[in-house]
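G.,

No rush on this.
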Amino acid sequence: MSMSQTPASANPKVGFVSLGGPKALVDSERILTQLRGEGYDLVQTYDDADVVVVNTCGFIDSAVAESLDAIGEAMAENGKVIVTGCLGKRADVIRQAHPGVLSISGPQDYASVMDAVHAAVPPTHNPFVDLLPDYGLKLTPKHYAYLKISEGCNHRCSFCIIPSMRGDLVSRPVDEVLREAEKLVRGGVKELLVVSQDTSAYGVDLKYAPRLWGNNVYETRMKALCEGLSTLGVWTRLHYVYPYPHVDDVIPLMADGKVLPYLDIPFQHASPRILRLMKRPGAVDKTLERIQRWRSICPDLTLRSTFIVGFPGETDAEFEELLDFLDEAQLDRVGAFAYSPVTGAKANELPDPVPEDVKQERLARFMERQAAISEARLAAKVGSVQRCLVDAIDGELAIARSMADAPEIDGLVQVQDGREAGLQPGEFVDVRIMGSDEHDLYGEVEYND
């Protein structure tokens, strides 16, 4: 936690540490909103805090270690620590490392967190003084927000333990999601990032039940959700989409400018045999065909994906299949991981683990191949005009993102004359692209006559 000074206040003070990705961030924002609404002050230092809440990640072993370190630091610096989030499902691991923590609860268990905070430091809430904005408290800059549409997952990928931690898919009714989005936009949000464990399965558990929002009825399914969000006049970005056939339904919405032309699809591999071992959808030829079809409908489509190299049993030939897939698919943005055993994952039992040095060598070759592809795709944008959203002003520059760039994980657009043009965070701007590198674009404000 940073060591900034906080003003003195009679209210009880809570420190907050949020680990993990966007989905954990959504949980953190909900808890923070509740705390602030009950009159707690949120402070930036351990010394100032009456109690510290740590929202943990427990998906891969390195994240478990990071979470345990964060809990340990909070215990050493403050001593009164409440643990929540994914690692909370493995209370024995936490208790063994840090037996003195006050409370442990799992993801989305807001009630247990609040009960533990109340027990440690009772609230002194005055409802007439502490009025909270109705769009809640956010950890991200106020011009973008994560919109969580479901919990859990119906897939049983062999490398993943999320279903055992978060259960099967539970979708939020579409009217509830749209109401939350509407509040966020009223509060100044310009970009909504739709997140879940499996966005394309949204609503299957609710049998796609229709709900009323505004004057229209929307089914609880991905396409209808996108149609509803498109009426709010902001950017909508889709994350964690499985390549199901009905993803085709949203591509025309992207071509029409209703949803950002951006899909985050974790393909994970390209060898049919490895995909079967992963328990992932595995028709690679069909995947390539569909990518071509999507691009023919929406030429501006940006595709981001993630892959695992060195999965147990992966042969040299199967790794070469993966490199060939990269060449053919021409994806814009790619993340990759060398396979890392996750405690409790089925994949750990598979035969023929790949030696660590081979995994790392394959990862380096994979990233080198993709870097050249990403660099070429960015270079092709030089000379174009890109609609961008400004995130920050840094010296003379405005740091912005194009429609192709999700926050934190993709590239940036550095607007060279951003300060001179008077740009502000949260503003949209058209940028003439003058140059590029492996990750980012560089340009100047395009003045429209």
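When you get to it, here's the other one too:
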Amino acid sequence: MGKCMIIGCGGVASVAIHKCCQNSEVFEGIMIASRTKSKCDALKEKLQPTTKTVIETAQVNADNVDELVVLINSYKPDVVLNLALPYQDLTIMDACLATKTHYVDTANYEPLDTAKFEYKWQWAYRERFEKAGITALLGSGFDPGVTGVFSAYAMKHQFDEINYIDILDCNGGDHGYPFATNFNPEINIREVSAKGSYIEDGKWVETEPMEIKRVYNFKGVGEKDMYLLHHEELESLALNIKGIKRIRFFMTFGQSYLTHLKCLENVGMTSIEPIMYEGKEIVPLQFLKAVLPDPASLGPRTVGKTNIGCIFRGKKDGKDKNYYLYNICDHQECYKEVGSQAISYTTGVPAMIGAMMIMTGTWKKAGVYNIEEFDPDPFMEALNKWGLPWEEDFDPTLVD
């Protein structure tokens, strides 16, 4: 079928690369490119004997457009899958434009200096991608990603209009550490310590961090405390799903995590403002990241399940209707299959599927699009096939 260049070699990239190698009919070749080439080489050494996919590796600085352009021109991939940091989305999009190569990512751009998640920077590329005749698929992870596909699927098959969406992200996994983050600590802590917000009647409503709490009983996990957070897909779903009156995002956190986080916040360790230390400038949050366990090391010790999905309320044939679509994923099963915990797995699998949709031409539209703007059916089918089977509930407990 074709070749895919994967930029990044962290936990999510590792899962996506494993999945590309399982899917060698589509991914005939992949190039793993990262700042640290040794990580790419180690993955190649482990996977090449197990797959027909031809794996190549390269060193690249994803902040440097010229370096990216040279690499893309030499490898000539059909699609670039960006699994680097959200700060690097725009340089990678610039390189894709310059080389007329399709682009896929899992998280929207955010500037380094402000914890601000918005699509405006990437949406500003719409016309240029259209003119170049290439596709940029934004947010092909789980949330954003599968949550958008679930929304499009619900709209297509279950509703005439959807008025309320609650996205619930529950991680019932236990890694045994008093405090650790399941993905990049810098991004995780920035997300959690930012103000919460949701969309109601077309406007953002802002809340204090962790101000709104609900308790929910998750299938496969049990009862958990969950908190309203700001999340990027609210912005695109509010525009793309017909009839939306309110859309919210909740994530579960244990008390121990929140107590540690509050303490670290109080002493200034989560700050992104540089400080002088022994004559050298350091960013407290980056220092904290260096002392915390690497999320990739949590895999072997994490037990339990995740449950992520969307509760929809709307109308069908003039009647009120409720519908819940979700996936349950087991940390230990993921580790057995691809050597990672479920947080990376639930993002890495959809990243591979998104790249496959673009590469096979199943999804084909020039321009910049969020995932819910495409036909959800082939993606939903692929989720069942590649390790993230979904479940439906036609009488869910609602969140007040």
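Residues 192 and 316 are 36 Å apart (CA to CA). Residues 342-359 form the longest helix (18 residues).

Enjoy the weekend,
O.
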